[in-house]
Design brief:
Number of strands: 0
Largest sheet: none
CATH class: Mainly Alpha
Structural class: mainly alpha
Strand content: under 5%
CATH superfamily: DksA, coiled-coil domain
Distance between the termini: 36 Å
Shape: elongated
CATH architecture: Up-down Bundle
Number of helices: 4
Length: 123
């Protein structure tokens, strides 16, 4: 199997590191905004709004956490030399796809296979 060009891997690594930094900053900002708001007392409406904001904050944090895990896994694959190999087909992932979604683990074909398998077993 051929390997990815080193300059492509380096570009993807830089994109991953920038994405990681951005997500960490967004988590910090969201936490600061959530903690800054007055959460003492209030009527039923205030408590309901607070509960909804907390739920939204937790969903956002979970989405960011999952994204960070994907980024960390991609960085680990770069270090181990397995970056850019589709988990489904074991073929190289398309260069354009890696540049667009540097944390992807699937080629377009691999993603289609996973999607069709998911639909098949969802019935």
């Amino acid at each position: 199997m051929s390997t990815l060009p080193k300059d492509l891997v380096e570009k993807c690594k830089q994109k991953l590191l920038l994405s990681k930094e951005d997500i960490l900053n967004r988590i910090k900002e969201a936490r600061e905004n959530f903690n800054r708001e007055d959460n003492k007392g209030g009527d039923e409406g205030d408590l309901t709004v607070r509960a909804l904001e907390e739920s939204q904050f937790l969903r956002l944090n979970e989405r960011f956490r999952k994204q960070l895990v994907e980024i960390e896994m991609a960085l680990a694959r770069i270090e181990s030399g397995t970056y850019g190999v589709c988990e489904e087909t074991e073929e190289l992932i398309e260069n354009e796809r890696l540049l667009a979604i540097p944390w992807t683990r699937l080629s377009i074909e691999g993603a289609e296979i996973r999607e069709s398998m998911g639909k098949r077993y969802a019935r």
